[in-house]
Every structure is written in C-alpha cells, then in structure tokens.
Amino acid sequence: MRFLCVFSRTGRGLSLALLFLLALAPGAPAQSTRASLKGSVMDPSGAVVPGAVVTLQPAGGLAKTATADSLGHFSFVGLIPGAYDIMAKKPGFAVYQMQSFPVSGDGNIDIQLSVAAESQEVTVSDDNTHVEVDPDRNASALVLKGTDLDDLSDDPDELQDDLTALAGPSAGPNGGQIYIDGFSGGSLPPKASIREIRINSNPFSAEYDRLGYGRIEIFTKPGMDKFRGQLFTSFNDNALNARNPFLSNKPPYQSKMYSGSLAGPLTKRMSFTLDFERRDIAESGILIGTQLNSSLQPTPFALSVPTPNSRMTLTPKLDIALSDKNTLTIRYRWEGDATDNQGVGGFSLASRAVNASNHDEMVQVTETSVLSAKAVNETRFMYDRSTSNSLALNDAAAISVSDSFNGGGSTTGHAWDTQNYYELNNITTYTAGVHTLKWGGRARESMISDYSPSNFNGSFSFVGGSAPELDANNQPIIGSDGNFVLAPETSLERYRRTLVFEQLGYTPLQMQALGGGPSLFSIDGGNPLADVNRFDVGVFVTDDWRLRPNFTLSLGLRYENQTNISNMADVAPRIGFAWAVDQRKNHVAKTVVRGGTGFFYDRVATSLTLSALRYNGITQQQYVVANPTFFPVVPSLATLAGDLQPTSTTEIYKGLVAPRIFQSGLSMERQLPKNTVATVTWAFSRGMHYLLSRDINAPLADGAYPYGNPNPIMLTESDGLFTQNQMIVNVNSRMSKKVSLFGFYTLGSAHGNSDGGSPMNQYDLSSEWGPTRFDIRHRFFIGGSITAPLKLMFSPFITGSSGAPYNITTGNDYDGDLIYNERPAFATDPNAPGVVSTAYGLLNINPQPGDKIIPRNYGRGPAQFNLNLRLARTWGFGKSRETANSGAGGPPPGGGPRGGFGGGGFRGGGPGGMFGSADTGKRYNLTLSVSARNLLNYVNLASPDGNLSSPYFGQSLALASGFGGGNSVYNRRIDLQLRFTF
C-alpha cells in the first residue's frame, strides 16, 4: 500500500505533480494516534523527574525503553497497537508498574512516582492541570474517554448536539468538522464503539483541511487481549417528560434503545470487537400555524402527527498483527433507519407527509507500519455506500401560505439517491532529534446518482404585501380620492380572498386587483435523474521544531484541489508556536503562550454541481410564473412552454473559487493553584469568497432584462465576505478527589454580506453587510462531576447563549426578481400606509426611494439555557482486577485507574476523570443511571418568524433544536438507563 493510484471520471485533469507527490507519500498514522505514546514523569509534588527509565513490554515481543529528558518528557514511536506492560524506574523512587495497558492511539500520559519509603501506588494521569509546549497539548483541548462517554447521550442525534456544545463556536458559517478514526465526515458510530473523543486539539495543524477550533475527532475501540463487553438499555416514556409548551396535551411518546458490545482475542495475533445498537422512537411531529375553517375564517391550530422512527447499526471490527512491525484493522459498519410521516411539522400539514428510509454500508481498512525506530506510516482506505428512498403520500399540487400553513401534497414525489464515497489517506511521521516531521495526503471521490422528481406536481405560493382594504362584505373601500385604500395584507388573507372571490365568480384578474390569487407558481419537469462526481485531493507537510526546551515552532504547508471548480490555487500555509515563558531548569512551566495563523478552505459541495446539471434548461425545465391566473389547476409543461412562461436555470460562475478563511489566534495558558488551568484565547477570522446566489437576469431599475427575456438565471458566485472576532476563556479545575469542573465562555462578533442565499438587490451587495447568522455574542458551557455520599455520581452539563440574529423581511417582491427577501425601511410616522410597529421600532413594509432600509439580520432571537444532569450509581461484584479498567467494553486505550489515562477527563483529569469514574475495580459492574435533559424545564424557543406580513411575526413557533428538538413533543426528558459491563 505504498503507492497510490488515483483517477477521476470527470475528465478534468489534476496537476500531475500533485498526484505524483501524493503517490510517493509513504504512509500515515491516523493523526499519529495509532503509533505513539508520550508523556512526563513527575514526583508526588508535581516536579519533573529527569533520567527516569520508562519501559514498554508488549505481549510476546521485545521491550522498548526511553529515558525522560531534562523536562521529564519521554516518548515512543512506532508502537504496534496492543496491550503493553509499563514500568518506570528512578533511584530514590518506588518502581511504577502498569499491566495490560492498551495502546492504540496517540497517548499523552503523565506518570507520578512515589518516594521509595511509601507504599507503591499506581497513578497515571493524562491531566490537563499543567501546561507544556507540545503543539497537540494545548490546555484548551478536551479528551473524553472511558466513563466520560457514559455521561454523554446515547441517542446519536443528541450525542452530536452534546459534542457540538463541548466544541464551542468555530470560525465561519460551517463550523468545525467531525473525523472518525481519521476519516472525514460520516455518521457517528454507536457510542458503545467509541473509545476516545478529542476536541479542539492543535487548531493550526496543516494535517487538517478545516480549522481546529470546533474540530471533533472520534476514535473507536480496538480489540482486547481478554474478553470484555457490555450490555446497555435506555428507556423513556411520555409519563417521564414535560410536555411541549406549544401543545395543550402530551401526545404519545416512547423511546427504547438497546446496545451491546463484545471484544476479545481470536488468535494470538488477532482480536475483534462487535457492536450492536437499535433505537425505536414512537414520537410525533408538532404542527403549529393558522388555517381557514369551513367559514373561511382564520383558525389557529396546534396538532401532533405520529412520526415513528427506527434505527439499527451493526459494527464488527478486526485488529490483526501482521508482523512485529505491521498491523491491520478492518472495520465494517451497517446502518439502516426509517421514518414515517417525515416532513410533517411546523407549518407543514399531514398532507405533506413523506415516508423515508436510508441504508448505509461502510468499510474502513487501516494498515500501520513501523518503518524504523523513528518513523511510522499509516494508510487508511474507506468505502461508503449509502442509499435513500423517499415517497410522498400525496401527489397533489403543493400550497404554501407563507408563515401560516403548507398544505397540498409534498413536492418530494418518489425520490431515491445512491452515493458511493471513497477516501484514501497516507501519512508518515518521522522523529529526528528536535524535529517531528509529518507528511502525506488524502484523496476522496464522491459519485452520486440522484433521482429527484422534486416539484413535478407543481406548487402555488401565497405571500403577503399591500392590497386594497375590504369591508365586512369583502368589497373594496374607496378613499376620498376615488382610489382603493391600501393596507398591509398577510399571506393568509391573500389565500382567503382567493377562495372567497372564487365563490363569488370573480375572474383571476379581478381577484388580483383586489389582493387575491397566488403570488407565484413553480413546476419542474424533464429528466429527474442526474449524476455527478467530485474528486478532491490534499497534501501536506508539517515540522514541529523544538527550538529550545521551552519553545516549539510548528511550520506547515497544505495544498488542496477539487474537480468541480476551475480554481487551482488552494495553498494553505500554517504557522504556530508554543512558549513556556517561565520554564527553567528543574522548574516546570506554569505559563505557556501559544499563537498561530494560517489559511483554511471549504470544499465546494457536489450539491451545487448537481443543481447546475439538473437545472441547465435541458435536463430539467423549471417554470416560474408570477401572479398565475390558473389556480388551482396545474397546467402541463407543454402549455407553459407554449405560453413562453419564464424558465429558470442554475449556473456556476466559471471563475468560482473555494471559500477560505484566514485565521489568527493568540492564547495564554496559566497553571493556577488547586489543580486548575485557565486559558484565554483571542481568535480573528476573515472569510473570503464565500458562496452566494444571484439572479443575473433580474429586472433592472427601468424594468428591462439584461438578457432580453424574463428567464431567471441563478448564478452561484464566490463574492461573500465576513469578519469574526472571538475571545474564549477555558477553565479546567480538579478541585478535589470528589469535585471536578471545567468550562468555557466565549464573547464573539461576526459580520458579513452573505449567509449563503441571495441578496435583496441582485446587483448590489453593499446593503447586505450586517450580522451573520453565527453572530452569537455570548456562549458558555460548564461541565464536570461531583461524587456524593452513597457513591452517587452527579454529572452536570450546562450550556447557554445569547440570541442568534434573524432576518426581517416584508414578504414582498418589489423588484420583480421572484425572490421574496426584501427588507422594510425605518419609519417615523405610525399612521403612514404600510407602517408596522414592532419591538425594533416602526418599520415600513412599502419603502420608497430614499428610505433607509434596515440592515440584514436586524432581529435577535431569544437566549438559550439548558441544564442536563446525570445521576449514576455503580455496583461491582466478582473477583477484583489488578488494574481497574474504566469504561464500557473493558479497559479503554490508555486505560488506568480512577482518573487515569482511561478514567477520562479532558486529558484525563485526576481523581474521577472529567465526569468521574464508575469503575469499582471488580470484574463485573452494574450501573443504574437517570439522565435528565433540560432538567429545569426551561423553554428554549427557536428563532422568531421574521416575515412582517405573517400573523406570527416576532413569535417563535417551535423549541430550539438541541433542547428537546424543534419538533419534539417534550420539553424536559428523563431517561432511565442500565449498563452491565464485564
């Protein structure tokens, strides 16, 4: 696997030099997490112990030794994953021993020696309550292992919410990225198969394409030299939950989850793990809006519709020692899930329901080679095939009454999608004196076959605006000047007038004159099948250079390219440093200053290419008719073509470049008393070339069309900009053996001219500069563990944030571009036509030339607060084990006693780990836990409705996602859980 042959089916050649460089890259360790172990040796007071001899003894292999340097540091490279006995010796100290220490990752452990007169005590603490200058040992990083993972949600969707909260804010609109065993993307594995999670480690490394702040790395468990396993079940019923505040009753809800794992040896050189998980949820979608009753009067509704969901995963894995220097890991994952009545909720009625199913199969192969005592190589290959199927239960034309209700049929039709994804990584790590070099690359290819008859049934849209005022008999009111008296009109009122005037026998033109009739009709036709491929490649080289014992300089260079854009200049230099300001001989540093800067790129998604291929005017035709006169009849495509109705096309600008972020950061880490470390970080980000879509054939000021016809041409460009400043404060405190707390606070500001959509003025971006959707000023997180009497373990998980911005629009289309995103103007006269009094002042939905338009994202949503709490009690029985192994499924990699390398904590964490240890030291453990999400039943509201023409303007109509979910039937949820480990 030393050579990499890559080809692209797109026919668009990449740089031969780039491919040659990738082909010659000898290999890689998954973030060097499977081939090295390093740490420090300290005495009981925390002072370094230089000259200590550390020995690693593999089962049936030759021992490896390392001598701690003047700072007490030691390191091993080229380790074959497996179980090792660890011993540390130094005259004057008791011998330190650890048996069956599983090594499968980039271990960072601290060994604390006891003085010879004391009874020997094994203590391994991968603690973050001290500071140092290794690039991947930034004190603001989090490492979760063992029983730490038990305190995160077992629900895969809620688990992702938890990890996102732990990672904190990232730069830019796309946030951080999730890596699983070194592979980019993919769905989260079952929690039972996770052995370690790393968050925000080494943010400026050139090894990664995306920014380190917000990056989440997940590593799955290796096989074991002894049989280990666990059984887990979780149950929740509606009786345990608090109702959704938007409903007057509690609809049926029940969630059941079962999971299990087993790991052990197959032969002397082969071990296995097997994980299983199944989740069944009988839940409901929440419908909130306003309809017309039989008398055509507005009637609010708040309903629930059953939306049952099931999900199952099966994950076997093999770890094979091919030789003393080569190991092979093969992991297979099967996942299937199905949801009925998908798409129902919010304003969407039950008639919009879609039944959906998904199926995913993935194979990952990792080969690790020890090239020499100083070099290790790893090659990773992944193949992922996923299929999805969606079937709309109603094929009638869709009806959308803006911000009131969505009825008719679903626009989904009968759609299916097949995706084949390949990823190949090869990275080499080489240690040469004070230099740690790493180089390699990644190649990925996505092949998508998408069958999507979207909107083939047609859709009618009703939006608000300004219309003649009607009297009680639905007749227009005439003013003293003989003209209609105009007044703001809601979308629902426009729909009501349409039905009323139909009953009165009015013609479509008469309806429109009196504010009735649909605002827009759109329909697609042609070939629903489209295929798209994308190939992208990235290569890098890094050098972590220990210039002095207290100063490390990190240099890196990355190059990226992809096939569905023409840009070839994605060069990403990176530089970072770490300086232990007060480190001296025989004195451990208490203050470290870190800094870094570099470029980071976002890949252009295949969905843009797919849309451009589909809506090129040939493969599919998309007709858009303003103020149609044929409601509710859906005309044929031939009729629309014969009437020369406008057809919309989608294009990608030929000079499109990949979005990029230039980011700089500076932080100070300080070790404080009481086992506490605090970090203050300032981060500046400048986003360039972010994507937006513009109609380049929108009407000009004089009503003329640039291309001489009314056909919309939606062009995707890379003209978006943003700037972001963040101050982040992290604190990690191991206050005592029974109390451990950590958290962060972020103060941020972000402004830009695009959130990825279309501007209000298709020809002028200057008025778009304003807060971005990720401009959340304040965020905080607090977590930890408290050991109470009776061996009860409390694990709080507290998050909060100020409100996110949202855009305020009029719901009208003044400029005729068929995009309803016009914003109102500031007003001073409350009695003027079209003026609406809001919490943001007087706003005019009919701005005139010269009026000052409000900025984009002028509104602010509600603040958020959430307290999750887990209460657990563990009983141990059976024979005692020499080494207490924390975590489900046996000892986690780097396992150790309570609070050790496997006990958890971000970077371990002293006694009890970050969330505490449930291990009793017995062969068998039974843990009963109660987990409460949103314990205080605080109502966290979603972003308010920003349409001034909506009856719900300024109101939130759902719960915020991550706090029970925007569509969930509960506001507070309490799960009962039982776990048995052996």
Largest sheet report: 22 strands, antiparallel, barrel
Which CATH C-level class of the domain at 33-112 is it? Mainly Beta
Strand-residue fraction?
over 45%
CATH architecture of the domain at 33-112: Sandwich
Secondary-structure content class = mainly beta
Estimated radius of gyration: 30 Å
* Uncertain residue ranges: 1-34, 117-127, 882-917
Distance between the termini: 37 Å
Number of helices: 7
How would you sum up this structure, described in words?
The chain is mainly β and 982 residues long. Among the domains are: 33-112, Sandwich (Immunoglobulin-like); 465-518, no CATH class; 869-933, no CATH class. 6% of the residues lie in helices and 47% in strands. The protein has seven helices and 51 strands. The strands form eight sheets. It has a 22-stranded antiparallel barrel. The longest helix is centred in the middle third of the chain and has 13 residues, at 491-503. The protein is elongated, with a radius of gyration of 30 Å. The two termini are 37 Å apart. Residues 1-34, 117-127 and 882-917 have low confidence and may be disordered.
